[in-house]
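Review this fold:
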Amino acid sequence: MMSCFLKPDHHGSSRRGQIVSLEMEERTEIAVAEEEEGIWLTWEDLSVTVSNGKDKSKPILQGLTGYAKPGQLLAIMGPSGCGKSTFLDALAGRLCAKAKQTGDILINGHKKALAYGTSAYLTQDDSILTTLTVGEAVHYSAQLQLPDSMTKSEKKERADFSIREMGLQDVINTRIGGCGGSKGISGGQKRRVSMCIEILTRPSLLFLDEPTSGLDSAASYYVMSRIASLNEKDGVQRTIIAAIHQPSSEVFQLFHDLCLLSSGQAVYFGPASAANEFFASNGFPCPTLRNPSDHFVKTINNDFEMEDPEQGLSEGLTTEETVNILVKSYESSAISHQVQTEVVKIRSRNSGAMELKRHASFLKQCIILTRRSFVNMYRDVGYYWLRLLVHGGLAITLGTIFYNIGSSESVQIRGSLLMFVATFLSFITICGFSSLVVDMKVFERERLNGHYGVAAYTIGHTFSCIPFLLLMSLIPGAIVYYLTGLHQGGQHFLYFASVLFISVMLVESFMMIVASMLPNFLMGMIAGAGVLGVMMLNGGFYRLPSELPRFLWRYPCYYISIHRYAYHGLFKNEFEGLTFSISEEGRPRIISGEEMLRNSWQIDVENSKWIDLLILVGMAILYRSLFIVIVKSIEKVKPIVAAFNFK
C-alpha cells in the first residue's frame, strides 16, 4: 500500500499548490520540448444538464476545465453518481439526446468531431460474442475495421500483435464465454479482449469507462498496466482518459493526471502524485498506510457523513462543507490558474490534422458479418438448434394426431392443422429472443465505435440465418406434410415449406425490431408475444373477415397481419384442385376445394396463392428495412464518423 505521511495544515494555505505548480511547469516544459504527436484534448467551462420532466433540468457537470495530453493517462475519479461517465461521454461526443451541453471541447485546438480510427471507447460492459474464441473475435474485428488496402495476412498480423500486446496469446483458442460446458476466459481476460478489438486501428485517443469494474486488485493492476504501457509497445502517443471508481494504490501510481469530481464539480485537477499535498494543505491529510484513492473518494462522498476520527476533519464539519472547502480552495489555488494557462497553451498549438482512417468496404463488411454471425448461430445452442428440436417435436406431435386425414369430412380438420402450422410453428421463433438481445448489444457497441453500419449488420444477419430457417422449415414441414397426408405433389410441398420459411423469417424480423426498441428480455418477450397474438386473432381464422369489427380489427389489422397471408396461401395450396364429400340433409354431396374456400373461409380464390407468398416476402423485406430505419431514428447517441456513409 502507498503510505501518506503528510501532516495537516489547518492554519493557512500559503504552501497549497506550490509543489503541484512546480511539477506541472516541469511536465509542460518536457511536453513542449518533445512535441509529441497525437491528440491534445481540452475542455473549458464544460457543463451538462439533463431534462428532468417538463421545463425542469438537473445539473450533472458544472463548469469543468482541463486537458488531456498524448502519452499520458488521465484518471477521472469520484464517488458513484458524481458524473464520471457523463463527463467521459461528453468528451467522447456520446451524450444522449436528453442531455444539454455547454462549454468548449477542442481537439488539437479546434472544434471537430472524432473521426473513425482516431478514437476508441471501451464501455463498462464487455459486449462480445461469447461463442467465439479470443483469436476469432479479434481477427473478425480486424477484417471489419481495417481497410481493404491491407492484405488478409497484414490484418491477421495486426490482430495477433494486439493479442500479444494484451498478453492473451495463451488463451487465443479459448472461447470467450465458456460455450459448450468449458469455463471460458476470466473477467480480466475478457476486458483485455475488448481492448484488443478497440486498439486494432491504433487510435490516438482512448476513452475507458470503468476499465477495472468487476475485477480483483491483481486483475485490475494487470489490465491497467497493459493499457498504460501501450505507448511503449507500438510507438503511438495515445491520449488515455479513464473513468475509474476506486483504484488500488498500485493502479493509482500509473496515473499521470487526476480529475476528482463530487456532484459534478471539480474538487481537484492536476498531477496525480500531487493530490495528497493538495488535500493535506486544506486540512484533510491521508492517514498513514491508507490508499490515497480511498481517502480522496471517502472525503468527497456526499452520500454518507464521515465519522472516522482518523479522517482529519474539523469537528462538526459535514461532508458537504468539506467538499465546498475543497472546491473553493481549488478554484482559487495556483493549481487552477496553472490549468487555465495550460489549456490556453494547448489551444494555441499548431497541431496537425487528424488522419481520417478507412475500414473495410461495405461489401466486405457484409461478407465478414455473415460469416461471423453464422459461426455464432451455429455454436449457440439456444439460437436455432433448440428451436429446431422443438419444431421437430411439434411436427411429430401434429403428424401423429392428424395422421393420414382423409378427403371426406376433413375440411375443418385440415383448416385447424394449417392454422397451427402457420401460427404456432412460427410463433416459437420468439424463443430465440434472448440470443438476439445479446447479439444486439454487440452490434450497438461496435456500431457506435464505427466498426460497421446498421445496413451491413442487417444484411449479414439475414444471410447467416437463412440456412437455419430452411432447416426449421424443411425438416418439420416434411414430417407434418407427409404424415398427415396433405395435398400430394412436390410443388405443393415446396409451397408449404416456403410459406413456413417466410413466416418464421417474418417473426424473426419482427423480433429484431422489438429488440431494437425494447432490449430488456422480459419486456421484449411480452411485447412481441402480445403483438403476434393480436395478428393471429385478426388473421381471418378464429373470426371470419366479415365478422371482424370494422374499426381497427378489420381495418387495418386484418390487412397487415402476417398470418392472414400465411393462412390464405396455405389454404389455397391445400384446397384448390381437391374435392370433398359432405353430407347435406342426409345426402352426400361433392364440393370443390375452391367453393369450400369461398363459402367456409371467405378466401378470394381469384388471387393466386403465389401472390400471398410474394406479399409475405415483401413484408419480410419491409420488416428488415424498418429495423434499419428504427435503429437510426431512435439511437441515443451518434456513431463515430466513418470514412463512408453506410450508417
Observations:
- Residues 18-39+69-95+111-118+203-334 form a domain with the Rossmann fold fold (CATH 3.40.50.300).
- The CA atoms of residues 517 and 555 lie 25 Å apart.
- The chain has 23 helices and 13 strands.
